[in-house]
Amino acid sequence: MKKIVSIVLALTLCIGACLSLTACGDKADFTVGICQLMEHESLDKATNGFIDALTETLEKEGKTVEFDTQVAGEANLCTTVINAFTSKKVDLIMANATPALLAAANATTTIPVLGTSVTDYNDTFSGNIPENVSGTSDAVPFDEQAQMMIDSLGLKKGDKVGVIYCTNESNSLIQYEAVKKLFEAKEIVVEAYTFSDTTELQAVVTNAANNSKAIYVPSDNTVADNDSVVGTICTEKNVPVFTSYGGAICYASLAIDYYELGYKTGEMAAEILLGNKEPKDFEIATLTPSVVYNDELCGKLGITVPEK
Q: Most exposed: 9, 99, 105, 108, by fewest CB within 10 Å?
């Protein structure tokens, strides 16, 4: 009886320890740590695309991979997650969003680091991207976004566009400054409506909607995680919202597919893990964005969707 109990306990411990892609007792060929800033649709899609691409590519080569996926929840916790990966000596780190990328780059110069859902690598690293860092960017042509809003909404001289973003996200500031310059070249007034804590968001959005003809939202992770607040308030006030990342709240967008962005990152990771390339061999990759109109929302707002 004691022998039977011992065997059952041993099997239970073995099963509990094998929370990976490999069978109990087997060790994966590679271990990859994924640090995702927070949970929301765009970042979730990028992580899923990365996992799918890396798993599929390595399986074709007869290799296995174990993923340690962690959601930090907020920027200052990314360092804790990344430090756990470096202590574990993972083979590669995928950093999903700018704060995660910065934490990874500051923690290691030897472990390959790939970023995704990052707007501007050069700005993030002041023009000196570390040799162990590369990845994919979710940057889109800001001039085309601004022109799309001008054309579809009939914006003219003196009209006001509000830009809502979180001051804790450096990538959002980059986008705000870019679209501000472009709108102002057309003599359209641009004003930033910022917040640092989500408890402030409802008041900030209400103020923006009361004082703007249209709202622009950059690829801001904090806003995206709470964008139902933006959508509800602005729709009630008949103010159209244009987002840089897509989503249900926008009447239109010129955005990328975040699953495909993550998938591209996963393909890069496979090349690195298989020894074919190093991060420094890759240029920062971008995707071609697609034009999308929300027919139902445009109907509610009285916006005519272009036939083309």
A: 9
